Structure formats: C-alpha cells, structure tokens
Amino acid sequence: MLENKNNYDAIIVGAGISGILSALILSKNNKKLLVIEKDKNIGGNCRTYEIDGYHFDTGPHSITGLKNGPLRHLIDNYFSSTPSFVPIKTYYVRHQNKFQQIPLTLSQLSRFSIFSKKDRIYYSLSVLDAIINSSINKSVLEKDVYSYIKKYKFSNESIKFIDVLSYFLSGKSMKETPTWRILGGSGYIDENEDTSKQYIKKLIKLLKHDYSSQGYPLGGIQSITSSAIDSIPENKVTFKTGEKVLNFIIKNKQIKGVKTDKDIYHSNLVIYSGFVKDLPDLISNLEAPYKNNLQNIKQTKSLTLWLGLKKKIPELNYNGTEIYFNSDTPYWAMPVSNFDANLAPKNKQLVGFTTILKKDREKQIEDLKQTIFKVFPNIKNDIEIEHSQVTIPEKAAVTIGIKFPSPKSPISGLYLVGTDTDMRSMGITRASYSVIEALKFIKKDGFLI
Ligand SMILES: Cc1cc2nc3c(=O)[nH]c(=O)nc-3n(C[C@H](O)[C@H](O)[C@H](O)COP(=O)(O)OP(=O)(O)OC[C@H]3O[C@@H](n4cnc5c(N)ncnc54)[C@H](O)[C@@H]3O)c2cc1C
After folding, report:
1. Residue 199 pLDDT > 70
2. Is 231 in the pocket of ligand 1 (CB under 6 A)?
3. Ligand 1, atom 17, residue with closest C-alpha
4. Ligand 1 lined by 304 (C-beta under 6 Å)
5. What is residue 182's predicted lDDT score, i.e. its pLDDT?
6. Can you say whether residue 396 is alpha, beta or left, with left for phi > 0 and alpha for psi between -120 and 50 degrees?
C-alpha cells in the first residue's frame, strides 16, 4: 500500500471497551492504528461522567471473572496501568420486609425464605435435574427456562422472581431464555466447560460458591477503559471521535478500508465493534444466510435512574447489589458510592436503579420511581439529583436458538468484537472473551507478528 496519511496497519471501528481492548492488543504489535468513534466520548457503555459532584457510570456495573476470567487475562498480559477493584460481597433480593442473599448454593437455597419451603425444594430439584440431565444429553439446557421448570408447581411469586432473573441475565423473559444462561449466570455451571462433562464438579459448586472474583472498579467503570488507554504505547494509536463509519470498502471479498461521514481511511485489517446487526448497512451484498442470522438478533433497552442522596440511607448501607422483583417495574440496584465514596460528594450517596425499558422513557421513569418509593418510603426527601440513562447493555440478547456470528466475518481482514460475537457470560466479561477469540483468528490469518 502507498504511504498516505490515511493508510493504517489496522482500523478499529468503535471505542467501547471491546474496541479499546482490541486497540491495546494490536498496539503491542502494529505501528499505526486508527480508532474511529461516532460518539464525542470514548468508552461506549464503559464510561463515567460527572454532574454536580456525582460520578455516573453508564449503568450500575459489577465485573465478574476477576480471578481468572478473560478480563483478568487481558489485564495481566497487556495492561501496564491496572484498575483496582473493590470486592462485591454479595447480590441481594429485597422482598416485603426481607433482605436476603441470592442463593448460589444449596445451603443458601434451603434458607432462602423469600421462597416458600416447597419452592425452595422445587428450585433445588430443578437445578440438580438440569445439571444431571445435561450430563446425559447436553441439549436439554437449550430449552427455555419456563419449559424446564414448569413441571414443578412453583408459586406465581417464585415464577416472577425467575422471570426477572432471566431478564437481568439474558435481556429477555424466561420463555425466551435458554436454561444454560440462567445456570451459568447464577454461577451454578461454568459456561466454558462442556455441560456433558464434569458434572460432579458442578454439583460440588452447588455446595460452595466463591464470591471473590467479582468487583467494582475504583473511580467508576471508566477506570477500566482509562487503564486500557493508558497502557497503549505512545504515538501508536490515533483516536477520532464524533466520526461515524458509514461503509466498509471491500474489493474481491477483502476489506480495504472504511468510509466515514468525514473521510476515507485505508487498511487491510478492520476490527468492527459496533452492532453486528448493523453490518448489512455497512456492507452491500452480504450473503443472504449470514444476513438473515443477523436479523434474528434481539436486543433489550435498559433504563437506569441514578439518585444522588443528601445523606446515606441505612437501608442501602451494604457492599453489594440488590434485586427487587415484586413489581411491574422490577429493578436491579447498586449503591456505587459504598464501593468508592469519591463517586458522591462528601457524606452523600449515589445509587443506580436499572430496569428494562418497555414503554415511553418518561412514563417508565415515573413507574420506576413509584417502585423505589414503595420500597424506600423516606428516600423522596433525600433526593438531591436525579439522572437517567437509556442504553442497550448487550448488543445481543441470549435467546433460544440464536447463533452469534463468529469474530471472523465472511469478508477477509474484517473481524468482529463485542457482546454480540460471544455468548459466554455477560457485559465486559463477554466483550473480553470476544476480543480474545478475535485475536486468535487475527493471529492465525497472519496479521500479527
Ligand atoms: C445499565 C447497564 C448495566 C450493566 N451492567 C454490567 C455489569 O454489571 N457487568 C458487566 O460486565 N457489564 C455490564 N454492562 C454491560 C457493559 O457495559 C457492556 O456490555 C460493554 O461495555 C459493551 O462493550 P462493547 O465494546 O461491546 O460495546 P459498546 O460499549 O456499545 O461500544 C461500541 C462502540 O462502537 C461505537 N460505534 C458503533 N457503530 C459505529 C460506527 N458505525 N462508527 C463509529 N463508531 C461506532 C458506539 O458508539 C460505541 O461507543 C451494563 C451495561 C448497562 C447499560
């Protein structure tokens, strides 16, 4: 390729965490990289910003797999500046006057008084049943959660809890969520392992659960993005923000570069971290079967309402997160300033409440507030600031029968990263898996020395 200011060794489209991690890895090998981000800020859904002394993440975040997951692997191998994590002690469920840990072991389950005694037995049986049956025939875990549990006569309240858990773990209801996602997301099975093997190990996991691998990043979620950027060697990567990639330039099924709303850039290696569902808009003549599969991908929008509180309230004085399920507007909440006091002004508190966006934003904010006020009747008087966000947490929901596309696209030299190219885990852990997988293909195809 001719020397030209717009020629690059690699172009990365999108500066969310998967784009930034890709840029970091490539910067250790390639000389001249370009990252193009359509938003004016870098970080995508992994960002923190300040308003009136409160530091808002793009949603409440709990980072998993910090002991030996994919983000840990990337931090250990590529980061020179590392984020610090405060351990997340536990995940709670709040119901009427009860506040209990989400049961992750059989012994916790036996004491989970939010379920009736009968439902605790049903729940234990359904988990054991899924683990043992999947060791004989692993396809049983592909069934939707509801069809798996319906033979047990759970109360309506317990069904509602399982449905809300499905939404928070897959983005969709229990009738659309495969059973393996709930078992994996709740820590009962390891999604990296073949479900037909090592079921004894899985059964032992039901007796003992290790929380030590979950944490909240000090300084807010942005600190992961910032540490990755700080770890990029100087002068290797050019960042262009506020510039949108409109098309990929392709010749003979080989990527040649990208066209944006401002310019044209050339490279034989492009990593795309935007929505794979948008690929047909960026590539004309994409093969029909591939395109059809992308059209089946579903997404879920979330609404987060952040409340900045004039004082710390006793009900939210814990180091963890909570689910409230008994409402048409259930929430997942996290008092983030309990992990890092600097996220709120001195002696004040910041808590984020996330729900699924199912209707008009303003109406849903009102409904969410009604749920919050029902649970914490006195919180109203302590609100100093309200801030809401509508986001798509995962670029693809894990639904029955869906196949996520491989990080290697049908176009030579074009690779895909992000939460819609790997089905394991969720969020930043899933994005990290996707980057590691894409890297394997990029290496194999000879783009890395
Ligand atoms: C409310 C909420 C709660 C969450 N909780 C957790 C949690 O507890 N734990 C966890 O691990 N994760 C959590 N997540 C999810 C996590 O934040 C995301 O999965 C992760 O940040 C996604 O990273 P990504 O790089 O795949 O995508 P994104 O962050 O979406 O990045 C993609 C980027 O590409 C850019 N882009 C797209 N198309 C173009 C184009 N054509 N040209 C230029 N730029 C483009 C976008 O603007 C964006 O910046 C949560 C997210 C939300 C919203």
Report:
1. no
2. no
3. 45
4. yes
5. 83
6. beta
